[in-house]
Structures are given as structure tokens and as C-alpha cells.
Design brief:
By secondary structure, the chain is mainly β. It is about 10% helix and about 55% strand. The chain has a 10-stranded antiparallel sheet with strand order 4-3-2-1-10-9-8-7-6-5. Helix 1 runs antiparallel to helix 2. The longest helix is centred in the N-terminal third of the chain and has 8 residues.
Length: about 130
């Protein structure tokens, strides 16, 4: 997996505000999140992985073992459960909130860019990141 350890910086974002509304993120947090350009890095730590999302607004680190459910705190502070799986160069995340809402994140890593497609309640957001 040649994308492990590479840092990707966001270059475009479509429908992010509507996506955040769909998952219940408040107005002030949405405004702050829309104003930043995050970077994403996937690291390996033994048989686990660490997904780091960093920006001037907030940095989050999620440590996971593929296929195992973990407790996670979203960037907006919401407590959720997630399962991460790899399919080739794609990292799929299925996230469930206590109210039963399911959100999917598909991150497709390439040699020069990473494309993230996030879906909740029939709202889809696409964000493209380039290698830094």
C-alpha cells in the first residue's frame, strides 16, 4: 500500500455543508469546518492504522484495526461507532451514531491524489486531496 505515510491536502470540496447538516453538525461548527483546508494522512502502527486529519480548526487521530468496530469521536464531538475495511487502495468506513444513522466514507488513495466520498441520508459530498 504505497499510500501509507503520504500526506494529502484538500484541493476541492463539493456539498460538504449539506453533508454536515445531514449528520447533525451545528451552524457555527459547519462555518468553521468550511473555512479550513484539511490534510489527511494514513499511517501504519503494527497491525493497526492511524488516520490523521489535521487543519487549523482541529486535528483528529483515529486508530483502528481493519474489520473491528471502534468507538470514535467525530470532529464535531459526536460519539459514534465505526468499522474500517480496506479493498485494494480504498479505505471504507461505515459509521453509526447512537440514533442509528449510518454514514459511509469511501477514501480512494492514488499515487498523487485521494478522493473521499461521504454519504449520509442520501446526501453525498466529494472531496479531493493532492499529495503534499
Amino acid at each position: 500500500m504505497e499510500f501509507i505515510g503520504k500526506k494529502y491536502k484538500m484541493v476541492s470540496s463539493e456539498n460538504f455543508d449539506d453533508f454536515m447538516k445531514a449528520i447533525g453538525v451545528g451552524l457555527i461548527t459547519r462555518k468553521a469546518a468550511n473555512a479550513v483546508t484539511p490534510s489527511v494522512e494514513l499511517r501504519q502502527d503494527g497491525d493497526c492504522y492511524v488516520l490523521v486529519t489535521s487543519s487549523t480548526f482541529k486535528t483528529t487521530e483515529v486508530k483502528f484495526k481493519p474489520g473491528e468496530e471502534i468507538d470514535e469521536e467525530r470532529a464535531d464531538g459526536a460519539k459514534v461507532k465505526s468499522v474500517y475495511t480496506f479493498e485494494g487502495n480504498t479505505l471504507k468506513q461505515v459509521q453509526k451514531s447512537p440514533d442509528g444513522m449510518e454514514v459511509t466514507y469511501i477514501r480512494e488513495f492514488g499515487p498523487e491524489e485521494m478522493k473521499a466520498v461521504m454519504t449520509a441520508k442520501n446526501v453525498t459530498c466529494t472531496r479531493v486531496y493532492k499529495v503534499q
